[in-house]
């Protein structure tokens, strides 16, 4: 894997080669990663995986025509052939008046912001094995746990670099660490499975492995002997384990491509109230050690914290340059980039701000409802907003948790769900997308 400087040089050299081969404009993305994962089961080492990879992606423009190619072969002759192939493909591609590099006057200038994303630590397979064993041992030690799907620990490092033909060049490195455990409680057909995990950019921020395992074990035991639910309309409380999914549905409906195609249930919602007053949804690419922090977007534009929803009002779309041109707007610095293909748009470190109600008071205020801790399936229509997911969790009766429930479906429409949503005060920043416990009134439950 290249250093950041080497990776940035690789990308810049590929762009220069494309211009020399006749491209009117070009950009290149380098992505390299190396990671190690250790898996254990029932106290024994089960697997050790090591993965390493590097890739260069090149996008070239010949007038309004473009093509994208990628390779993991960095031999000079192979890169020369890649460039020639990309230019030839672009000359035969259909015209796209919206495609192109980001506006030159909007490119990030100056030094890359320091976000403390790389702890520089070396991967120690023995330490990974010890963490995986500690997580599984703690999970299996919980009374009622009867079997294990295993524990795992991982560590890795990635380097990203981007160069464009109109003046941008930059790169950065990130490290990552993770621990997980998954166990079963009970016996036979009555067995229940659950898990816990945590990931962090710096090893120093990673939760204690034994604490993660103990949480997995307790969660599995708490799910034993679930009851069936009667169908009807009732309030649903989304546990923090699943509430962030509501934000994912929001982002999926406000990216530039779906707005330009007119395939979003929020198509006409910009500047209007979509949540209750007081609800805020924020995106912060500059959070130190954030799981999706980045110094620039996938097109070389600067990034900055932004309010997606302020006091319940939708404030912005998330736009890459192509979708911004199509909509007659400016890009918002939310371009995302994968290996090959054109940029899309997406969030970075996304969260819903905490409310003022405690989780305990939220539960006490529900006469009969459900605390949902797991969602199953992908029954969400981003065109209409219709929402239907399999679920499991805990029945709430008389303001108290009354026991586990399973094999039911919750349904509604995301427009109605957003307006009926109340956030609790228990927000934690643990993942790339975070939300507090959320109450949504008036959903439909279909019991088993």
From TrEMBL:
Region (Disordered) residue spans: 330-351
Gene Ontology cellular component annotations, sorted alphabetically: cytosol
Chain segments annotated as transmembrane: none
Residue span(s) of domain Metalloprotease TldD/E central: 120-224
GO molecular function, one term: metallopeptidase activity
Domain Metalloprotease TldD/E C-terminal positions: 231-447
Domain Metalloprotease TldD/E N-terminal: 26-90
GO terms under biological process: proteolysis
Family of this protein: Belongs to the peptidase U62 family.
The protein's name in its UniProt record: TldD/PmbA family protein
Species the sequence originates in: Sphingomonas gilva
